[in-house]
Write a structure and sequence with these properties.
The protein is α/β, with parallel strands linked by helices. 33% of the residues lie in helices and 19% in strands.
Length: 241
């Protein structure tokens, strides 16, 4: 793939395509990041490479307003990113893939739940430290930050917007959508995650339909640092194989 991908607002989304090693793949894994992230996070690069090495095409991308994608960071909400994911799926070559997998990290995990609940083109869902209770997240992480003035985790380019707060509060939780998802679903979560508690992963796993699998990594933090990254990629490629 080398054609531009644009969302419904006309904003160009940056992406990197990883062609599978060996025979031509009929499957592709789309990789979406979390809030304040982008497609170049080490876990995303490692996962794309692992999928390609396992004979599965991969495409990692940055949601609008993040990384080198066009758009404003202050407009980056879960609702908008659900649309971005749809635009990425739309951009895949027609008839090229029999199976489209989405792997979303953190807030990107919530995006995947909402998209998979109504989009039959997704054949498999993977939640990596996936966000579940969106209203809880914004209150616990940013409850003391002044909207449209303060920063997310003191990151200079990540202004906490009123639009972001309103969207996550309005969604409240993606737990109710779990029962609507009918495709195979993998959950990977670290017990040392201090951003999205592993209890949230267990809660939505319990609500999900079969077939499903949950893999808990005892020492993994929220971004699957160091050795946990290799454990996460093995979990994903093992599930897909």
């Amino acid at each position: 793939m080398n054609s531009p991908i644009r969302n419904s607002y006309g904003e160009r989304l940056e992406y990197a395509y990883h062609e599978a090693d060996g025979a031509r793949s009929r499957r592709i894994v789309l990789i979406g990041h979390g809030v304040t992230g982008n497609m170049d996070r080490p876990w995303a690069v490692a996962l794309a490479g692992a999928c390609a090495g396992a004979g599965i095409d991969a495409l990692r991308f940055s949601f609008a307003g993040n990384g080198r994608s066009q758009g404003l960071f202050t407009d980056a909400t879960i609702t908008k990113e659900v649309g971005d994911l749809g635009s990425v799926i739309d951009a895949l070559p027609g008839g090229r893939y029999d199976e489209i997998v989405y792997a979303g990290h953190s807030m990107g995990g919530a995006v995947g739940v909402l998209r998979a609940a109504f989009d039959p083109r997704l054949s498999t869902l993977i939640s990596l430290a996936g966000m579940v209770h969106t209203a809880r997240f914004v209150e616990e992480e940013f409850g003391g930050v002044v909207p449209d003035e303060g920063l997310m985790w003191d990151k200079p380019d990540c202004l906490l917007s009123s639009a972001y707060l309103a969207d996550l509060r309005a969604i409240g939780s993606v737990l109710d959508q779990a029962a609507a998802i009918k495709v195979p679903w993998l959950f990977v979560h670290g017990a040392a995650d201090d951003v999205i508690p592993i209890t949230e992963g267990r809660e939505i796993f319990a609500a999900a339909r079969d077939p499903k699998q949950m893999i808990e990594l005892p020492d993994a933090d929220h971004v699957f640092s160091e050795a946990a990254c290799a454990e996460m990629t093995r979990a994903v490629t093992g599930f897909l194989s």
